[in-house]
Amino acid sequence: MGAILELQGVSMSFGGLRAVDSLSFDVNENEIVSIIGPNGSGKTTTFNVISGLYEPDSGDILLNGESVAGLRPDRVHDKGISRTFQSLRLFSSMSVLDNVLVGMHSKGRARLLPSMLRLPSVRREEAVLRARAQEILAMFPGRFSGPRQSQAAGSLSYANRRRLEIARALASEPLLLLLDEPVAGMNPAESHEVMEQIHDLKNAGYTILMIEHDMHVVEGVSDRVIAMDHGVKIAEGSYEQVANDPRVVEAYLGKRSTDAAS
Amino acid sequence: MVAARALNSVRAIFYKVPRSAYVIGTLLIAVAFPMLNAVGVVETAWIRVGVLSLLYAMLALGLNIVMGETGLLNLGYIAFFAFGAYTTALLSSPKFDLHWPFIVLLVLSALIAMAAGFFVGLPTLRLRGDYLAIVTLAFGEIVRLTIINLPSVTNGPNGIPSINAPRPLGMKLTDTLLATNLPESLKNWLVIDKPVEYYYLVLACVAITALLLTNLKNSRIGRAWNALREDELAAVSAGITASRAKLLSVVLSAGIAGFAGCLFAYYSNVISPESFVFMQSVIVVCMVVLGGMGSIPGVILGAIVLQALPQIIRESAGAARSEFEVYRMLIFGIIVVVMVIFRPEGLLPDKEWRREAHEADPREIESTRQSLFTLEEGEKDLEV
After folding, report:
1. The pTM is what?
2. CA torsion angle A55 A57 A59 A63 (round to 10)
3. Do B241 and A116 touch (CB under 8 A)?
4. Where does chain A show beta strands of DSSP type E?
5. Residue A151: its chain B contacts at CB < 8 A?
6. B146 Cβ neighbours under 8 A, 6+ residues apart
7. Which residue in A51, A108, A147 is closest to B220 by CB distance?
8. Whole-angstrom Cα distance, residue A110 to residue A125?
9. What is the pLDDT of residues B41-50, one digit of tens each?
10. Which residue of B has its CA nearest to A85?
11. Interchain contact, A101 vs B220, CB within 8 Å
12. Measured distance between the N- and C-terminal CA atoms of chain B, rounded to whole angstroms
């Protein structure tokens, strides 16, 4: 099992603020890695740098040994990294099925003229894509069945919108899936279900890098946990190791007053 | 309450009729319309209104690609129409004594407009929203002013007169066929020079364009455009190359305008810069907004309404005719404002834009209701 993703000393500043400071870590094949850390510790910025929305100031990002740092987001996606967003970014007036089909954009080849003429090759491709999109939606049993698929994504419940975002990211069968707070705003039962689904994805062979605040979920699914604070990696290891690391406790809760006194 | 329910059940009937029935019905009416002229019910002037409505429908279809599908505002769209019209006028009139064949010019006009779209789109598409609107507005004016100030080529404000009548089969073949003893009724169609003949030519072009664009709308490319319109950041993160997809939509819409421009030049016989003023761009935008952004039947209806309405008012105004001309744009403005307030999704809205305005599509609600009904009925069967 080799490293799928390698971050080598990645830094990203906004004006005088170092949002990510020479960050290095690996994600191995078929591994689930969680990034935790207080608000403003640079987790989402890290995601944005990996997915190409920002170009890192320095350092390199390797996907299967090939640099993807500074590529446009659509190129990064083509290389095999797809993501979800912390603040839902669905195409809300498009149908559920269309949202997944957009996620499969890079799988399709249909060009302008054949699409306008709806040539048999285009029809075949469309049928294949639709069937595949339905398979992906079926990974969320009972959530996107039948008439729901033609409903507007914006009319879904909050939890279903989060699920649909994951479905859209899965549509391109990525080498690496970036999940930005997949259970944010869900009730315990719903987040438990998402947890099961993340397990299923791992069993299906996916590699996942995840940002999450819900420690039950982090504990439940992570093979490895990375803790960040002020753009720096402060701890890395198993959930127990990281959760009991004094620097992590300090980052979340501040220094003990006894420590301050001594 | 009761009235609302009654209204809903009446509407449900309309939603149960398949879409194809509406399309075929509309086509039949459109084909039958000039026959009313032949039997003397409708004056020829109305056929002319029909031709212009269809030409504008073509423009609205083109503008809808950028406005409705990709979500980019273009306020200089008429410039592409001008490119098409002038290409045809210059290459098929006594001006340079060139008389290129109709089919060649139809394609060439579209290609030249597409090239113009490419060169305008390339640097400007990184702009968004209002900025893009202003740049395209400026482009429209630049094109118009260039036409006025280039008299050696375009005759300046005087325009180009005596554009040939189109011969769909080409010069030579048409002449040979005209010399034969074909029936007169068939010979008429070899040279398109009467309003009715133009009507059918443009109708065929609009129908074909609408069909091709409907296919495109439901394809991978159409979805990419919609995704960019909805959320560009999410779209690029899903692997869509924003610059390429946007450029494609601008170039294609320019091509359709060029195509329409070619037909317009042939039809009007004389073209001058007056036909390509900023107000014309605005009118096309109004047609798209009125009919329903993103909706192919909608924008065609919008074009017909806004072209036919002034004519109807003019006819019924009688003595107050000249007064109406003064108020024409004012009335357009009021119509658009009222639409945006009370029915922002347009007359015949697109599914996605309707969702934007009202959350749910009635046709969708109807089908969900039906499937739930079947589902529940099915359950009952199981219980028995």
Report:
1. 0.89
2. 0
3. no
4. 3-14, 17-28, 32-36, 58-63, 66-67, 81-83, 176-180, 207-211, 224-229, 232-237
5. 364, 368
6. none
7. A108
8. 8
9. 888 888 999 9
10. B234
11. yes
12. 35
Of A229, A225, A231, the residue nearest A23 (C-alpha): A231
What residue of B is the nearest CA neighbor of A107? B239
Contact B235, B71 (CB under 8 A): no
Quick one: CA dihedral A142, A144, A149, A155, positive or negative? positive
For residue B333, the surrounding DSSP H or E stretch is helix B321-342
Residue B311's CB is within 10 A of a number of other CB atoms, namely 16
B378: pLDDT confidence band, cut at 50, 70 and 90?
Answer: very low
- In the β-sheet with A207-211, what is the strand arrangement from edge to edge? A81-83, A176-180, A207-211, A32-36, A224-229, A232-237
Phi, psi of B150 (to 5 degrees): -125, 60
Q: What is the mean pLDDT of residues B318-324?
A: 69
Residue B210 near residue B85 (C-beta atoms within 8 A): no
Distance from CA of B38 to the nearest CA of A (A): 35
Q: Alpha carbon of A73 to those of A32, A61, A167, B233: distances in Å? A: 22, 13, 19, 9
Cα–Cα dist B2/A174, whole Å: 53
- Report the C-alpha gap between B17 and B26 in whole angstroms: 14
- Largest Cα–Cα distance of chain A, in whole Å? 78
Average pLDDT over residues B121-137: 88
Query: Where are any strands of DSSP class E within A37-115?
Result: 58-63, 66-67, 81-83
Distance CA A217, CA A34 (A): 10
Distant-in-sequence contacts of A183-187, Cβ < 8 A, 24+ apart: A183/A212, A183/A214, A183/A217, A184/A86, A184/A213, A184/A214, A185/A158, A185/A159, A186/A158, A186/A159, A186/A162, A187/A159
Would you call B234 and A53 a contact, using CB atoms and an 8 Å cutoff? no
- Closest chain A CA to residue B230: A91
Q: Return the exposure string of B227-241: e unless at least 16 CB atoms fall within 10 Å of the residue's CB, then b.
A: bbbbbbebbbbbbbb
The residue behind tokens 């060009």 is: A111
Residues in chain A closer than 8 A to B212 (CB atoms): 116-117
> With contacts defined as CB-CB under 8 Å, which chain A residues touch B240?
74, 102, 105
